[in-house]
Amino acid sequence: MGKTLAEKLWESHVVRSAVGEPDLIYIDMHLVHEVTSPQAFEGLRLAGRPVHRPDLTLATEDHNTPTDYTLPLIGTSSIKDEVSRTQIEALRSNCAEFGVTIYPMGDAEQGIVHVIGPQLGITQPGMTIVCGDSHTSTHGAFGALAFGIGTSQVEHVLATQTLPLDRPKTMAVTVNGELAPGVTPKDVILAVIAKTGTGGGQGYMVEYRGSTFEAMSMEGRMTVCNMSIEWGARAGMIAPDQTTFDYVQGRDHAPKGADWDAAVEAWTQLRTDDDAEFDAEISLDAADITPFVTWGTNPGQGAPLSDIVPFPSLIEDESERVAAEKALQYMGLEAGTPLREIAVQTVFVGSCTNGRIEDLRAAAAVIEGHKVADGVRMLVVPGSVRVRKQAEEEGLDKVFIAAGADWRQAGCSMCLGMNPDQLAPGERSASTSNRNFEGRQGKGGRTHLVSPLVAAATAITGHLASPADI
Amino acid sequence: MDKFTVHTGTAVPLRRSNVDTDQIIPAVYLKRITRTGFEDGLFNAWRTNEPDFVLNRPAFAGATILVAGPDFGTGSSREHAVWALHDYGFKAVISPRFADIFRGNSLKAGLLTVELAEKIVQRLWDDIEDDPAIQVTVDLVERQVRWSGEVHDFDLDDYSRWRLLEGLDDIGLTLRHVDDVAAYEQARPAWKPTAISTAS
Ligand code: SF4
What we know:
By secondary structure, chain A is of the alpha/beta class.
């Protein structure tokens, strides 16, 4: 019997396997940020261990960095919160002590860890990539096995460049067909999550397959794989193809010359064999997918924008019904309200889900020539310094600023509100990020997850809207 | 991680059941960036609000074995709970029943969890309350707890016992296979990327 892509990736990284023990898996690249790494480095120090492969470890600062354009990004004096500042200072001294490459705040390569890996060409097909961060699944878009890990695993990878792991099962998510105009990769993944629920992928390495994903750009594929964790999947991946190779080729860390040819030959093998079997399969039809938004407090509580806030009483499953009731109460929403009538005070465009150049271009194209509605603030936060500079070269910053939006520095920003970019209690946002959990964007804040197109249209109208509504 | 073979010390009676990890160490301590020094957070609420709490009583100062009620370590999976107990000076925790994740975290970090039947735990509580100076021995080699003439066997799977006896944490275990890792690295294609900056 043939093998799935996930199985091929797994097997090519087994350092050692023994009956009754987890497989020892080699890690090709370890990404590090300031929040989940301090105690891992401290553990190494206490045990007198070095970082085994500093050359396969890359650090950046993203969660705590301020994005206010008026602040100096040199040193750490611009970080007011003490915990945030301490975490960043700890990362810098740990990287210096252990010889790890770091792109700190203010550096031309700084940015959200899941944005900078791909843009540097460090994320490549066939790799294993880990990070102490659940959205590491983003890198699976290149046909890599990429997943988030806990702090003691971070220490384990630093010390050994390996992890003892039990092999997860495999699942295929197949979507075929062409997406209608105005329907984006974000809508596809929100529709998948709404179908499966937040636990549907638990215990699986998921492969997204079918012509819909094949037609997507690399950035779109990253948006899809990024949210794999939101339906519980251990990892999400898409088989590499010409689109992938074209994206990687020529980037700083991409193989060059004869190495490139050898790499492409190896990468071409990274496909699920025709006779391979998945442990589970689900499928959707692209024609059924329309702009999608969430109404609740987990990413599975979503519906087409043309729909209404659901009536919890019509939900059969009891725990889901109770969850929906609680969510509507937290969100301050009335069942039966058309989603299009929900007014927001804030629009956030950014994050490792939708903070790349294509996302900013898409949002700018909608907002050009319009104004952000009265009473609405719009934050546009590029995912990395490179994305910011590229956008500024293309004049996108001017488009946003002319519309009345706030153009900011790179970072995680309002995706989780560890820096000062937060929602006030009760404040409602349309956000291109990946989590609408209670309090995620600020205590008491209410989040609706949307695509960059819906975000921009919502900023113009002041209520959830798609470009077609303008 | 230190090896654990036979430990003898005094014990402290924690006559409470369902002690969850939030009580062992409150969430505010999770913001720290250190791996040590969590002893001040251990049972912080009880130590602050209850002058009579066992850990506040001079008679039990310096104890290295915690004897708790059933279902110790429930709730959030935070590894800090184990660090706090360890940093405070505990080498072993005895309870009739532990929460799974806590027990797993403990054994991985070198803090021995010992399950004894509830009525035996009750007797141990009575004895150490009568005389806090009683020496209690936790013997991992024989899988026994002994004090004042009492001898009780406990269960621990062979794999966990071996790891503790050898002082092997997960990293230590993997480091026993450095040859396999080196062989794998030898065979990796040279064109795989590194994080070293390519900018000139
Ligand atoms: S942008 Fe949001 S989801 Fe992505 S790494 Fe930052 S905080 Fe996590």
